[in-house]
Design a protein that fits this description.
It is a single chain. The protein has a single domain, classed as Rossmann fold (3-Layer(aba) Sandwich). 27% of the residues lie in helices and 26% in strands. The protein has three helices and eight strands, in the order βαβαββββαββ. A hairpin with a 5-residue loop joins strand 7 and strand 8.
Length: 153
Amino acid sequence: MAAGSGEIWFYHLERSTLDQVLPELLDKTLQRGWRARIRVADPDRRAEIDDTLWSWRADSFLAHGQADQPHAARQPILLTAGTENPNASQALFIVDGSDMTVTEEFERCFIIFDGRDEAALQTARDRWKALKGQGANLAYWKQSDEGRWEKAA
């Protein structure tokens, strides 16, 4: 993502898991009236996220689909490994070290990484430095001791 584009928010997971945080962020995104894409490189992890979104809460789910399935353009949330944007999403969620290219068309990009994984932490640091050097509009979020998200940079 280049300077002058939308916001890029880094979410540093320390106390919660992706499966706990991602549905909450997606729900807030939909409440904002935006569509979302989740870029996940690993097909097994994509299937896990798919299951999580269908069973997010006992009384609720997050409607979504896969980019390679019919009617992808109609989905409010789309899971994909690629860079295409068939559902015209305003929000892009990048998880598990997935591809960072083609992010300029989004209002907000969320980079969610596990701070307990040294490789993921280093990748996030490298991404932050590179994007900062390009003048990107960045924010860094971490969890407080009480589990709330706090903007740290």
